[in-house]
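Lecture notes, part 5. Sequence design as translation. It can be helpful to think of inverse folding as translation between two languages: the language of shapes and the language of residues. The source text, in structure tokens, appears below.
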């Protein structure tokens, strides 16, 4: 009898730390809603990890004047933080792998467009061409301690920074011993472990053509990041034409690759983030070829014609 009691007590304690209701917390950083759903964690754990967002935003922001990125853009001589060096190195890596489809040095062009206020207009063609001439990832020179940009070149890490921050938040949570939960930075989702009942986390992929934010499909994911790039996420309309925020580094205009969204699943949210943006630029055929060439990377492509394409094994693994 005593043994049964002891067993029940252990089970009850396990439940308290794991199978009960998750702790949730929300914040706002990198211009998006950040939310945490954590099992076996305290509210203080959630708040501490949420606070990390602000610290990283202070480094990578393009709008905060004293961020590492703003100081680089101003041509200031200073020692960037280890995180900035690491993120820029990773961004440059993906630029190289994607042959420049992912271009973290497109800042001179992206700052001409305003996709966030909702009041954006198409910049003059001459300005786009001039900015394009100063863009391109080859303009980033890196050493172990310094980042050097060619004159006029500017970084825009908007296509990878959220993923990088999600990865660091995930690491911090694991260091606190939290082994189950979700980190969500405006749709860049990192799944930590699995749900306490042993099932995968159900991650919805938004319907690019719906206006209610309803999922078009659901993936079941353990221990991996799920990141979506979509042409519906930020845009403005002018003269009946929709201009969205993912730019073709060859033209400086919103890319028209026939894709509405690309969702990438892989271990690291930063990798997934960069690959998803690159795939939007590359289009279905080349994007699929990229994903298939990378180990441990899966993807779902949704075309403008509303067809869904999965990379090999994606459906079997995650549906
Ligand atoms: P994402 O939502 O991850 O696809 O990132 C889109 C953001 O990345 C944009 O809002 C820009 O800040 C930036 N961006 C736009 N086009 C590119 C590109 N071709 N390569 C890298 N970053 C880009
Ligand atoms: Mg991205």
């Amino acid at each position: 009898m005593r043994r049964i009691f002891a067993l029940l007590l252990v089970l009850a304690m396990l439940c308290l730390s794991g199978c009960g209701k998750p702790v949730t917390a929300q914040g706002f950083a990198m211009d998006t809603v950040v939310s945490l759903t954590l099992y076996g964690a305290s509210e203080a754990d959630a708040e501490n990890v949420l606070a990390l967002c602000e610290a990283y935003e202070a480094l990578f922001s393009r709008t905060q004047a004293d961020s590492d990125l703003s100081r680089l853009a101003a041509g200031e001589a200073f020692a960037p933080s280890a995180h900035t060096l690491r993120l820029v190195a990773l961004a440059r890596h993906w630029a190289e792998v994607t042959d420049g489809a992912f271009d973290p040095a497109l800042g001179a062009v992206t700052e001409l467009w305003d996709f966030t206020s909702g009041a954006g207009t198409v910049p003059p063609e001459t300005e786009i061409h001039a900015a394009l001439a100063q863009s391109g990832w080859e303009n980033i020179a890196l050493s172990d301690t310094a980042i050097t940009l060619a004159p006029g070149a500017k970084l825009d890490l908007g296509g990878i920074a959220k993923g990088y921050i999600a990865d660091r938040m995930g690491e911090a949570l694991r260091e606190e011993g939290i082994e189950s939960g979700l980190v969500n930075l405006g749709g860049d989702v990192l799944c930590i472990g699995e749900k306490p009942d042993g099932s995968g986390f159900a991650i919805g992929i938004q319907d690019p053509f719906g206006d209610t934010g309803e999922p078009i499909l659901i993936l079941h994911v353990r221990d991996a990041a799920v990141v979506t790039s979509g042409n519906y996420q930020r845009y403005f309309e002018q003269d009946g034409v929709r201009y969205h925020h993912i730019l073709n580094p060859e033209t400086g205009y919103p890319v028209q690759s026939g894709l509405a969204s690309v969702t990438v699943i892989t271990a690291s949210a930063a990798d997934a983030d960069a690959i998803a943006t690159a795939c939007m630029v590359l289009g279905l055929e080349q994007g699929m070829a990229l994903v298939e060439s990378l180990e441990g990377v899966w993807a779902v492509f949704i075309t403008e014609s509303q067809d869904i394409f999965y990379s090999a094994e994606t459906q079997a693994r995650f549906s």
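The translated text above is only one of many valid answers, since several sequences can fold into similar shapes. The chain has a mean pLDDT of 92.
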